[in-house]
């Protein structure tokens, strides 16, 4: 059974009022599912979104190089002044990405995503 990433993205958007964006990017940096919560001011748009995806994929690749020593990356959380960015590798080709308001309970979001993905494997 495969995961419906659009449905999972919608569930993550509905999970917490602090979630701003939820979606899946492929290894080429293309968003294949998800999007922004309605009626929310976007902090990044256009090329800046593409740059953000590129940096998240680049970070994942960097940590993959250390996996033989520290294990596989489970998630990455980067807190900025205006937003918290969360990335969760789904497999070698896809990355689940979430942005939230600062100081959101991101472990609840990460646990929810893992549970949903693992229940459909």
List the helices and strands and how they pair.
Blueprint: H1 5-15, E1 19-26, E2 31-36, H2 47-64, H3 67-70, E3 76-79, E4 84-89, E5 94-100, H4 106-119
Notes on the protein architecture:
It is a single chain. The chain is α+β, with helices and mostly antiparallel strands. It has a single domain, classed as Dynein light chain 2a, cytoplasmic (Beta-Lactamase, 2-Layer Sandwich). The protein contains four helices and five strands. It has helices spanning 5-15, 47-64, 67-70, 106-119; strands at residues 19-26, 31-36, 76-79, 84-89, 94-100. The chain has a five-stranded antiparallel sheet with strand order 2-1-5-4-3, with helices on both faces. The longest helix has 18 residues, at 47-64. The radius of gyration is 14 Å and the shape is globular. The termini are close together. The relative contact order is 0.21. The model has no long low-confidence stretch (mean pLDDT 90).
């Amino acid at each position: 059974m495969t995961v419906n990433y659009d449905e999972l993205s919608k569930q993550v958007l509905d999970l917490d009022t602090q979630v701003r964006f939820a979606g899946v990017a492929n290894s080429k940096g293309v968003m294949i599912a998800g999007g922004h919560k309605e009626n929310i001011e976007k902090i990044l748009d256009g090329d800046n979104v593409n740059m953000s995806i590129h940096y998240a994929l680049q970070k994942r690749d960097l940590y993959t190089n250390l996996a033989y020593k520290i294990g596989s990356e489970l998630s990455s959380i980067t807190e900025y002044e205006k937003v918290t960015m969360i990335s969760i590798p789904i497999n070698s080709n896809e990355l689940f990405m979430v942005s939230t308001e600062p100081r959101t309970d991101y472990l609840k979001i990460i646990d929810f995503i893992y549970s949903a993905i693992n229940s459909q494997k």
